[in-house]
Amino acid sequence: MSTQREVDEAEIRRQVHKIVEGLRAKDLEGLKRPYAKDVVSFDVEPPLQHVGLEAKLKNWANVFLVFESVTYEVRDLTLAVGDDVAFGHAFARLSGTLKDGAATSGMWVRVTYGFRKIDGDWLIAHDQVSVPIDIQSGRAVLDLEPSS
């Protein structure tokens, strides 16, 4: 018999998988489902924060302007689940075929998720995407891979 925490964790994992499915299908409507309407996103694209569902969807729409086909992977998703809030972290990589036909393997980024249980649904209320930087040069380090 599953505990409530196990049920909630499974639902949160399904929400993250909806992002994977929505990106692969280039489905902006599907990408609305896992996010809270007032989501705050600290994404890799400027500005420093994107506030609200429409701002988050604009970031994903920008991906579709660049990519002909999209592959999105989430690896090592780790969750801590409470009664009505949860957080998690993972590695993610966006890759695929660009509009000009060039294939790209993308880069691994670090993703942190903050979830809230709203009207019985686990929704992403906050996400942060980052890449490590080389402190001396101030440049992003884009060629790292998660350990196996």
Number of strands: 9
* Low-confidence spans: none
Taken from the alpha-carbon principal axes, the silhouette is globular
Here the CATH topology equals Nuclear Transport Factor 2, Chain: A
Major beta sheet, specifics? Answer: 7 strands, mixed
Structural class: alpha+beta
Helix proportion range: 25-40%
Number of helices: 3
Please tell me the CATH architecture by its name: Roll
Mean pLDDT: 96
Strand/helix succession: HHEEHEEEEEEE
How many domains comprise the coordinates? 1
- N-to-C CA distance: 32 Å
Q: In what range is the share of β-strand residues?
A: 35-45%
What is the alpha-carbon Rg in Å?
A: 16 Å
CATH class label = Alpha Beta
Characteristic terms for this protein:
alpha+beta, 7-stranded mixed sheet, two-stranded antiparallel ribbon
What does this structure look like?
With 148 residues, this protein is an alpha+beta fold. It has a single domain, classed as Nuclear Transport Factor 2, Chain: A. It has 3 helices and 9 strands; from the N terminus they run ααββαβββββββ. It has helices spanning 4-24, 28-32, 53-66, and strands spanning 35-42, 50-51, 67-81, 85-98, 103-104, 108-118, 121-130, 133-134, 139-140. Strands 1, 2, 3, 4, 5, 6 and 7 form a 7-stranded mixed β-sheet that branches. Strands 8-9 form a two-stranded antiparallel sheet. The radius of gyration is 16 Å and the shape is globular. The mean pLDDT is 96.
Task: Give a concise summary.
The chain is α+β, with helices and mostly antiparallel strands and 148 residues long.
What is the strand and helix layout of this fold?
Layout: H1 4-24, H2 28-32, E1 35-42, E2 50-51, H3 53-66, E3 67-81, E4 85-98, E5 103-104, E6 108-118, E7 121-130, E8 133-134, E9 139-140
Parallel strand pairs: 1-7
Antiparallel strand pairs: 1-2, 3-4, 4-5, 4-6, 6-7, 8-9
